[in-house]
Amino acid sequence: MVSNPGAEQLRALLRTRSVQFGDFVLASGQRSNFYIDARRTTMSGEGLQLIGELGLERIVRAGWHPDLVGGLTLGADPVAYAIAVAARAQGLRLDAFSVRKEAKTHGTGKRIEGCFVRGARVVVVEDVITTGRSALDAIHVVEAEGGLVRGVLGVVDREQGGKENVQQAGYGVEVLVTAAELLSERQ
Hints:
This protein is α/β, with parallel strands linked by helices. Helices cover 39% and strands 27% of the residues. Helix 4 (76-89) links the parallel strand 3 and strand 4.
């Protein structure tokens, strides 16, 4: 297997910034002895650059050809923006959107913000996939608004069944890093 320096840098950055050990209750309600606060990486300048480049590379390799990237706010936002900027740097047109957890009660009352349009080919992105619920929620909203979901890209797969849940729902899933890779060098 050929080593990818960018992927190695992302793993190192996630280990340093995002992985914590202790006793945690996850959003899923499950308990865990480690927590991955990916936002500490996805919202850093270095993380944005790495995730944008690696995410775009993975989307291209998957053959999804999206018009848009986005997902459930807040975790998906920096991932989507990073990929959109990386695409622009390569002369590709790829815009971003955010899915609100609930519709606004003022203004247009939209659930999807940003560059979303009906009929767009979409890749849903996630910072951390645990159960897959956030990705599936975003997919439901996107499809209800007329988007065509091509696949799901996660920065980290906690390897707790989320990837499989999304695949069982009929969507391809690509991940940049697994929990096993992040925890393999724990000292």
